[in-house]
Write a sequence for this structure.
């Protein structure tokens, strides 16, 4: 184990189910003992995000930075960086954080910023991925964990999981099937990242 504490900061905008899967896995697998890593904080850009209470119930500090209080994307991202950097994070995890990030933000966290996207990238970057997969007649759908770069949903891939599209699927039933995989894939990908970071 590396001696330096590795703080993970998770950014959310909504339900926080991926955040919860990561926190629960970190606790169950003792990432602190194994990698010197812990989820130090959860930050939401939406005050009403249900994931905030969920984070607190899991014993993780939860904070809000409401993007509506800022005049520009740049000003919000600068304030968000300040809030995140209080924790000196080894890794910043986007878990349903529904904001387009500025180049300055992405550059600041280069190499330590990851995202999960609900499609088999490079297919269907952007929004409404499940309906678009159904409309395209795909027989498989899934999710991708990737490093974040300046181009939306295009960074180097870290892990992917596929599920079948079943007859009669709606965007909702497909999303639920994909989310079950997200909750396994994202903690696993972060664990792999921590394992390789332990040698750095
Ligand atoms: C997840 O399905 C995640 O893949 C998606 O938002 C959902 C958040 O759910 N992210 C994106 O669409 C990013 N482009 P959660 O708040 O329950 O984790």
């Amino acid at each position: 184990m590396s001696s330096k504490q590795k703080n993970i900061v998770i950014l959310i905008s909504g339900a926080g189910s991926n955040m919860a899967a990561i926190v629960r896995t970190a606790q169950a697998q003792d990432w602190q003992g194994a990698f010197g890593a812990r989820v130090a904080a959860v930050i939401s850009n939406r005050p009403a995000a249900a994931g905030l209470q969920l984070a607190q119930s899991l014993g993780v500090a939860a904070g809000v930075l409401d993007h509506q209080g800022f005049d520009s994307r740049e000003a919000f991202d600068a304030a968000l960086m300040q809030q995140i950097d209080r924790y000196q994070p080894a890794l910043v995890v986007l878990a349903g954080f529904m904001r387009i990030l500025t180049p300055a933000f992405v550059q600041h966290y280069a190499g330590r910023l990851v995202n999960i996207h609900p499609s088999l990238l490079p297919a269907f970057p952007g929004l409404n991925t499940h309906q678009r997969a159904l409309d395209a007649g795909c027989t498989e759908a899934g999710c991708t964990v990737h490093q974040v770069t300046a181009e939306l949903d295009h960074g180097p891939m870290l892990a992917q999981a596929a599920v079948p599209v079943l007859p009669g699927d709606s965007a909702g039933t497909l999303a639920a099937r994909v989310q079950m995989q997200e909750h396994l894939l994202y903690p696993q990908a972060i664990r792999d990242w921590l394992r390789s970071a332990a040698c750095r």
Summary: Residues 6-199 form a domain with the Rossmann fold fold (CATH 3.40.50.170).
